[in-house]
Write a sequence for this structure.
């Protein structure tokens, strides 16, 4: 599969769980997975960045300018981690403001052929009465884009398998909610 | 009834057969510990090592092993408990973060001389960066200092194998062995294949040998010579170790010696730059003692050799002929901070330019960095959680004693009292109490009476605070000590403390009460209060301060009792206090700065503070945080 992904957000937004959804899916598909997580002090509301490399890597870290996909659960964290994305890469940002990008950065995205998507994931999750499931909504949206080489069924199966039982239902609905917003 | 052998075979069969899981590096290390048949595992939590012992507990429960696991009260204690098990012939492991080994340095140095009997492995996790530590110290230097071998894994998978190799090595040479995973191994995730877990039948058998286990200085000289011989033998073995790998290259103008995370960052980066296989690489998995022939042969075959290792220059230091070496000592590699892929790329780019090797142009990170810097994004510093009892305690302390008081702090979540200007120092575990004592003595010498209010967490107090407090009382120091008791070791992921009485595997053990310890240290002023009662707590702090000023006064201790909201939110769920901000709020930001609850946010458009309902836990403490009484309990 050969995929490098950055997942970013703030402590408490479920960055680590989102990373697990992708890594467990990749493993189920028979690929080697390797990644790196933030623990400790930063989990108290600081920036959390997780690196995920699928198939054929030795180091758990992704170098700036080489990630295929960025998933950010926060606008500011998207700005902070955008440098990881490669030319022609993809990014997905949870934002209530649609095309929120600053003009200078927007020109950078265009110049480097980076496709930037945003989704009001918090709204979808709030409508479901589960604000903490916003991460699943953004995952659903990302999976609906064909360049992200994970299938709907595979990811859904993982969410079903690894969600704590009391969140399973709402996680799946948030995932489907995000998936349904595909363009 | 199945025989023991049958049930064992069944157990192994059921759990091992090519089973794979995506594990955290620390969980893979735990798996390595149980796959080594280890009998006793002791630890004190600390990032990045904290997840190892809980994972041992997980495997112990799954496999119904009778492994003894314990959270010891500090690293020195953990070290010695595990060491003693090794004296009896059992396998033992001790786990800590790098600065924990400072605390356990005493037994490390001594046990290198005495040696061990059963395999004894020290798992000590380094934190280049640092991400969650007070130093970037390199544990491999401790290995050199103590003259014990060190293994340095590059990945979770390898860390698991190295645990097993470390036990074998330790048992063969009767020497403590250090496994040094750095944070990018401990907190990496990788798919790991489970191997069978053996049952090593070893009954405790302590053979008396005073010349070794109780050696006096005369015997220590003999033991030191023995240690030197062991180390020389191990170095010879390391010459052929499977953990040291030579990759040939076609261009010998530059060679690389790389270890740990730096090795894998190097190989991934070279591959991305289409330079895989071009330069020779010597990968070192046994950084101490460095296999000298292997290193010297490699160096002699290259024009220059770039050494990449973290966090310090341990391999580089041991290379005897430095005339060809590029590294930290000549500034080619930076001497502080993590060797991230970006740093390694920059080092490579400089060398490639010198060699006339063109690199494919990538995206320019500086261009974006400038654009993003121009946005002036708010700094996202770590903060105490909404509802955290520490915030309430700090706020009341500041109100009672003001900003002229000196606030020595300690290591834990509550170091974040820094943001509230209620932490002025943070040195090491237990440092709040000793620094308070020293500050008192320094001012007292000048007949100055400066208010001093120290804060320390419950787990940290038990770790290193008790001797500090006894010494302070004995030497007649006077200050206020607030023990922030949230009934758990929160920062490192909710490990139980001795005060709770709960053991590492969840069973109930004997409780050691903090209050009793404080009294036993000779403190006469000991009060307990929930810091959510901000005004009462403020009065109590003032009373404590008064006690320190009385003719017969001394150290005054307040135990601020409020369970960590992440660990035990029940009282908030049972008695929620829903707050709202009135229209009179004029956006003065006092609450944002002095109280700093993440759930209080300024609505810039309205210039008024609002409650972020998504994260508010309804503790109601912020009602106290508005001097203009604009934060009020919401009417239903």
């Amino acid at each position: 599969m050969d995929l490098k992904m950055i997942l970013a957000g703030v402590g408490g937004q479920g960055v680590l769980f989102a990373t697990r959804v992708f890594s467990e899916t990749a493993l189920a598909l028979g690929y080697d997975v390797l990644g790196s997580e933030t623990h400790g002090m930063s989990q108290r509301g600081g920036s959390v960045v997780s690196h995920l490399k699928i198939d054929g890597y030795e180091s758990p870290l992704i170098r700036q300018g080489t990630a295929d996909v960025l998933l950010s659960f926060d606008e500011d964290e998207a700005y902070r981690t955008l440098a990881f994305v490669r030319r022609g890469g993809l990014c997905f940002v949870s934002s209530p403001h649609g095309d929120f990008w600053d003009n200078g950065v927007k020109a950078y995205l265009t110049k480097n052929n980076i496709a930037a998507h945003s989704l009001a994931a918090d709204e979808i999750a709030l409508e479901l009465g589960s604000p903490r499931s916003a991460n699943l909504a953004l995952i659903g949206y990302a999976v609906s884009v064909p360049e992200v080489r994970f299938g709907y069924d595979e990811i859904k199966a993982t969410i079903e398998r690894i969600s704590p039982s009391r969140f399973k239902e709402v996680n799946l609905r948030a995932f489907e909610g995000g998936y349904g917003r595909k363009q | 009834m199945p025989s023991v052998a049958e049930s064992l075979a069944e157990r192994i069969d059921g759990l091992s057969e090519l089973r794979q899981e995506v594990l955290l590096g620390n969980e893979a290390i735990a798996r390595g510990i149980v796959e080594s048949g280890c009998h006793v595992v002791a630890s004190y939590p600390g990032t990045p090592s904290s997840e190892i012992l809980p994972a041992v507990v997980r495997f112990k429960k799954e496999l119904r092993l009778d492994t003894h696991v314990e959270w010891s009260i500090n690293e020195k204690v953990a070290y010695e408990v595990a060491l003693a098990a090794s004296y009896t012939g059992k396998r033992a492991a001790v786990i800590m973060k790098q600065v924990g080994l400072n605390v356990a340095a005493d037994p490390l140095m001594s046990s290198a001389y005495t040696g061990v009997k059963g395999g004894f492995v020290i798992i000590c996790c380094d934190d280049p960066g640092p991400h969650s530590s007070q130093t970037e110290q390199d544990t491999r230097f401790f290995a050199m200092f103590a003259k014990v071998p060190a293994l340095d894994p590059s990945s979770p998978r390898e860390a698991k194998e190295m645990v097993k190799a470390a036990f074998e090595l330790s048992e063969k040479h009767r020497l403590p062995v250090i496994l040094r995973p750095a944070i990018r191994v401990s907190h990496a995730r990788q798919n790991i294949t489970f191997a069978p877990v053996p049952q090593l039948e070893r009954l405790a058998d302590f053979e008396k040998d005073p010349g070794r286990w109780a050696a006096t200085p005369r015997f220590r000289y003999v033991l030191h010579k023995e240690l030197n011989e062991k180390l020389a033998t191990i170095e010879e073995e390391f010459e052929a170790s499977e953990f040291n790998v030579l990759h040939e290259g076609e261009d010998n103008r530059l060679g690389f010696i790389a270890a740990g995370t730096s090795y894998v960052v190097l190989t991934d980066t070279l591959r991305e730059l289409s330079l895989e296989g071009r330069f020779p690489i010597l990968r070192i998995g046994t950084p101490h003692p460095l296999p000298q022939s292997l290193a010297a042969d490699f160096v002699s075959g290259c024009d220059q050799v770039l050494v990449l290792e973290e966090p310090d220059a341990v391999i580089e230091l041991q290379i005897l002929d430095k005339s060809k070496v590029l590294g930290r000592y000549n500034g080619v590699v930076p001497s502080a901070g993590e060797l991230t892929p970006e740093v390694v790329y920059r080092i490579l780019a400089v060398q490639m330019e010198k060699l006339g090797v063109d690199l494919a142009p990538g995206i320019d990170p500086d261009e974006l960095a400038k654009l993003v810097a121009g946005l002036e994004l708010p700094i996202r510093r770590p903060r105490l959680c909404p509802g955290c009892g520490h915030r309430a305690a700090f706020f009341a302390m500041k109100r009672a004693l003001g900003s002229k008081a000196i606030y020595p702090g300690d290591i834990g979540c509550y170091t974040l009292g820094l943001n509230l200007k209620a932490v002025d120092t943070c040195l090491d575990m237990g440092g709040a109490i000793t620094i308070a004592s020293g500050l008192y003595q320094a001012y007292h010498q000048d007949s100055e009476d400066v208010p001093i209010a120290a804060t320390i967490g419950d787990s940290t107090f038990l770790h290193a605070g008790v001797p500090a407090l006894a010494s302070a009382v004995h030497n007649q120091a006077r200050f206020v000590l607030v023990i922030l008791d949230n009934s758990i070791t929160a920062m490192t992921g909710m490990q139980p403390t001795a005060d709770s009485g709960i053991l590492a595997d969840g069973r109930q053990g004997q409780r050691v009460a903090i209050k009793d310890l404080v009294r036993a240290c000779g403190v006469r002023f000991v009060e307990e209060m929930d810091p959510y009662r901000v005004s009462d707590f403020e009065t109590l702090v003032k009373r404590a301060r008064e006690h320190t000023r009385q003719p017969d006064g001394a150290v005054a201790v307040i135990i601020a009792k409020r369970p960590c909201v992440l660990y035990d939110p029940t009282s908030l769920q049972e008695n929620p206090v829903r707050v709202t901000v009135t229209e009179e709020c004029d956006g003065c930001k006092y609450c944002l700065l002095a109280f700093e609850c993440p759930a209080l946010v300024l609505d810039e458009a309205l210039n008024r503070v609002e409650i972020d309902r998504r994260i508010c836990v309804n503790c109601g403490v912020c009602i106290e945080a508005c001097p203009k009484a604009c934060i009020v309990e919401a009417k239903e």
Summary: Chain A has seven helices and six strands. Chain A touches chain B through 48 residues (CB under 8 Å).
